[in-house]
Structure prediction request, 420 residues.
Amino acid sequence: MRALMVLWRREVALAWAGGGGPLLACGFFLCLTVLVPLAAGGDPAGLKPVAGGIAWLALAVSSILSLERLFERDLEDGALDLITLGPVPLELVVLTKAKAQYLAVGVPLAITAPVAAVTLGLPPALAPLIALSALIGALGFALTGALGAALALSARRGGLLIAVVVLPLFIPPVVFGAGALERAANGLSPLPALALLAAYVLFAAVVTPFAGAAAIRNAQG
Amino acid sequence: MITVSALTVSRGERVLFRDLSFHIASGEAVALTGANGAGKTSLLRTLAGFIRPDAGAVAFADSEPAEARVRHIHWMGHLDGLKTGRRAREELAFQAEWCGATADGIAAAVDVLALEPLLDLEVRKLSAGQRRRLAFARLIAAPRPIWLLDEPFAPLDARWRAALGLLMQAHLDKGGGIIAAVHDPLPLPARTLDIGVGR
Prediction:
């Protein structure tokens, strides 16, 4: 338990401090949401129906930015070997790193999301729902993102590869998250879509530690 | 402490060594020698459990290999595992506490390795030799019986080579074991295990 706290403190410190922290992710997220209306020709009414979808897409892409930091740097500087010989199973290490990624990138993005979505033309009344769904979805992004980062390890310098591996895995939460917003905008209950989003997160929480640890062991060998 | 029996390890198509068997007793140091590319690092990584051998087994004392590795092995590869953007104090605390060190253990390691003046510096500002001493601190702070060292002396000056030699001797005197991949002789009595010429 103590060892897990030691790792948790390090991961949070690394995630917040170095490049790829919350500021970068949130800045990138806001840039994307500013660019879309400009690219669409500056017609706010035309963007309204797709505002939720665009916000979720931007959320997904922004979540990928700092994934390379998660395992690749530890592999390159030898820290991953040290971590592997620690008292905590590698599966729990993967889960801890994913949680730190969520706290450092996912939560700040979820807080920024309502601002961005309302800017895109979503009704301000939906802001709490955006924040809630983004908080759930960002946990899914952190978990499957960690899995993608671990899978890309054996390719070495797999920064771009991570995006290609991870983006398809991000399709379900984007669909469910944007679906929740669309249902709420049409006066329907967003709960079914939120439940599916939560189910995706649970699924990722079960699969990521084991598959991620296996991928790391493979990359170390 | 370690019994290696009929170990065969290959990397890709190439067999590095076949049917390698040896035993390392408590209080014994082994200098692992061989040409560049002979497989010294691969053998150490196999002992540490990072590489799965094609055949053969590695046994530690009397426990199961997987759990034994965590309790028995200190690994120091040619990379120090230090984050350049963090302060030496933070990295030392992480590495040592992760290996199970107490505050007293860390303080003792800082003292023995004369790390105090370096602790508030960022790791990026330390020389390669200073980084090696910082990484070595976890071996002193959190006692584990088997040290697997890959080129431990490479970045160190003569003074610290001698000092680390004394620390390694003290570890052996306490019943520990050391396997070190080296090109130059170890500064302490050691058996030599030569694994070949490489290709």
Notes: Chain A has a mean pLDDT of 89. Chain A is about 80% helix and 0% strand. Chain A touches chain B through 26 residues (CB under 8 Å).
